[in-house]
Amino acid sequence: MIFEERKWAELAENMVRTQIAARGISNGRILDALAKVPRHVFVPEELRFMAYDDCPLPIGYGQTISQPYMVARMTELLDPKAGEKVLEIGTGSGYQAAVLAYLGAKVFSIERIEPLAKRAQDNLRKLGLSASVIVGDGNKGLPEEAPFDAVIVTAASTEVAQAWKEQLKDDGRILLPLRLHSGVERLLLLIRSEGKEEEQWYDYCRFVPLLPGVEKTM
Ligand code: SAH
């Protein structure tokens, strides 16, 4: 199967219509971002023919680029505003970071596997998107760039790390897939406002696990 580069915009529009709008996401800014960010750029070459399909895809090192709907859903729940400072934990391919940056957020994204971080940073730069990728352990956040308006975690965590809370503004939100039991994960949106924190629970989902430390690669 050959991926025809010149057809990607058509494939992306079709993806938005049949997978994202059809499942109830109606925010025009988010639908536009999903239609305009070239997802195939973030997918390994041999899988590009599947880049706009309704599924996650392997990106190497045992990691995945999330399903398009999940990226749209998490973006909708996080609702980034232009100019906001957003911290992403788990850069992976860089696609989620690209969507957030396309919406005008100033994105800092942490990845523990260096070659993935490098590939993601190259692709983001090529597309002219404002997102910085940092190699590190996302459990520690990024104190040098704190405070953040929002934190988005794209690997399954068993807890809301203290560092993410400490590095969040007084009015801010944290979105993550929280692992409740083995095999059961659910999106949790933690909203901090006027000194109070509110928890909102959303979709059940499946993510690769948030791991400790930085991967040793050669
Ligand atoms: N948002 C990505 C998908 C993420 S897959 C995309 O759009 O493609 C989850 C990623 O989190 C993997 O690349 C994994 O290596 C990374 N990860 C897992 N634990 C981490 C940690 N503690 N710190 C930083 N990255 C981590």
From TrEMBL:
**What does the record give as the function of this protein?**
Catalyzes the methyl esterification of L-isoaspartyl residues in peptides and proteins that result from spontaneous decomposition of normal L-aspartyl and L-asparaginyl residues. It plays a role in the repair and/or degradation of damaged proteins.
What is catalysed by this protein? [protein]-L-isoaspartate + S-adenosyl-L-methionine = [protein]-L-isoaspartate alpha-methyl ester + S-adenosyl-L-homocysteine
Subcellular location, record wording? Cytoplasm
What EC number(s) does this enzyme carry? Answer: 2.1.1.77
Task: Tell me the enzyme class.
Answer: transferase
Offer one example of a GO biological process linked to this entry.
Answer: methylation
Write out the GO cellular component annotations.
Answer: cytoplasm
What domain of life is recorded for the organism? Answer: Bacteria
Task: Spell out the catalytic residues.
Answer: S66
> What lineage does UniProt assign to this protein's organism?
Bacteria, Thermotogati, Synergistota, Synergistia, Synergistales
- What does the UniProt keyword field contain? Cytoplasm, Methyltransferase, S-adenosyl-L-methionine, Transferase
Species assigned in the record = Thermovirga lienii (strain ATCC BAA-1197 / DSM 17291 / Cas60314)
For this chain, the family text in UniProt reads:
Belongs to the methyltransferase superfamily. L-isoaspartyl/D-aspartyl protein methyltransferase family.
Cited HAMAP family? PIMT
Q: Which GO terms describe its molecular function?
A: protein-L-isoaspartate (D-aspartate) O-methyltransferase activity
According to UniProt, the name of this protein is Protein-L-isoaspartate O-methyltransferase
Where would you say this protein principally sits, based on its record?
Answer: cytoplasm
